[in-house]
From TrEMBL:
Coiled-coil boundaries: none
Taxonomic superkingdom: Eukaryota
Short name of any one Pfam family annotated for the protein: Hydrolase_3
Keyword line: Hydrolase, Magnesium
Annotated GO MF terms: hydrolase activity
Name of this chain's protein: Haloacid dehalogenase-like hydrolase-like protein
InterPro entries linked: HAD-like_sf, HAD_sf
Cofactor: Mg(2+)
Length: 331
């Protein structure tokens, strides 16, 4: 009997992850069964940064396929069904990697002129909204908030604190960053920034901040940006056109071989099931053959897409339980 889907696409925080921001043993075992018994290719689609997700994906890869090591009761499979294959979409689809080889598939970065203006948008005296960027392998922020790292317990990913980055410069300038970071925005380089995001507990700040972001981008030669929310307290800004939905379509167009007379991208999208909980998941959930919203999802996402099935919460292993039901795996 043919498997109902060939691709399982999932957001991470609030979706595949438990409330403690880890992948539960039950969920990992489910993915392992899907890969070896049903030939499924997992795709992780997240707002997180690749260096962070790479560690998590490596652990998941070891659990599913084995590599001569043993982690958390995961012995190497006795007869792997096929060569490992998994993909990672990070920064809300701005960047795509092969999760097995870590090869970069594609990357779409913000215009450096726009990135500079947005990083410097808020005043040095700002204490409520923290400006963050993902640049190369770094996570850089303007306010030193250690509590932001609690969601990165598995990877141990940490930010670098650069409160007052210098203006954009053709040549590196001396860094004044605490801790001595001597690359990227710390020395006036605003290239290769995949995402800028603003974090605050004061969500009332977002409407006016969103307008400022859009107006600032437009003032830089008519540039536009893609703006979404990965969480209720986090507003994300990427290059125009970037979304998880667009990234899945682009991924399939790059990695799938063409077949005469067939639309392989459309077929792959139809053969995909996706899960998400945030507004940044909306395009992804409506792009695939079946989109599922978590019970714990942002209420705005549920209201915008009442046609999508609501599955159990991430705290109840909702993704894994739905997948087991769809693929006929005992709960």
């Amino acid at each position: 009997m043919a498997s109902p889907f060939r691709y399982v696409v999932s957001d991470m925080d609030g979706t595949l992850f438990s409330p403690d921001h880890v992948v539960s043993n039950y969920t990992r075992d489910t993915l392992r069964k899907l890969v070896h018994e049903h030939g499924v290719t997992p795709i992780l689609a997240t707002g997180r940064h690749f260096p962070d997700v790479k560690i998590i994906a490596n652990n998941l890869k070891k659990f599913i396929w084995g590599d001569g090591t043993t982690i958390d009761d995961a012995p190497p499979p006795s007869s792997p069904s096929r060569a490992p294959m998994m993909y990672i979409l990070t920064s809300n689809g701005a960047v795509a990697h092969n999760a097995v080889t870590h090869e970069l598939v594609f990357q779409t970065c913000l215009d450096p002129v726009v990135a500079e203006k947005l990083y410097q948008l808020l005043p040095d005296t700002e204490e409520v909204v923290n400006t963050n960027i993902y640049q190369e392998d770094d996570w850089i922020c303007r306010i030193d908030w250690p509590e932001m790292m609690k969601v990165h317990k598995e990877s141990g990913f940490q930010y670098r604190y650069v409160p007052n980055a210098p203006p954009r410069s053709a040549e590196p300038v001396p860094s004044t960053a605490p801790g001595g970071l001597s690359r990227g925005v710390a020395v006036g380089n605003y290239d290769n920034i995949s995402k800028i995001f603003f974090i605050t507990d004061d969500e009332a700040r977002f409407p006016s901040l969103a307008r400022e972001v859009q107006n600032t981008a437009a003032s830089c030669g008519g540039n536009s940006v893609s703006l979404t929310f990965s969480a209720s307290d986090c507003m994300d800004v990427m290059a125009a056109g970037v979304s998880k939905g667009q990234a899945i379509r682009k991924l399939f167009s790059v990695v799938l071989p063409p077949k005469e007379g067939r639309d392989v991208v459309a077929e792959a999208l139809q053969a995909s099931i996706a899960f998400g909980d945030g507004l940044n998941d909306a395009e992804m959930l409506t792009e695939v053959g079946k989109g599922c919203v978590m019970d714990n999802a942002n209420p705005k996402l549920k209201a915008q897409h009442p046609e999508l099935e609501v599955v159990q919460s991430n705290g109840d292993d909702g993704v894994a339980k739905k997948l087991r039901s769809v693929f006929g795996i005992p709960l």
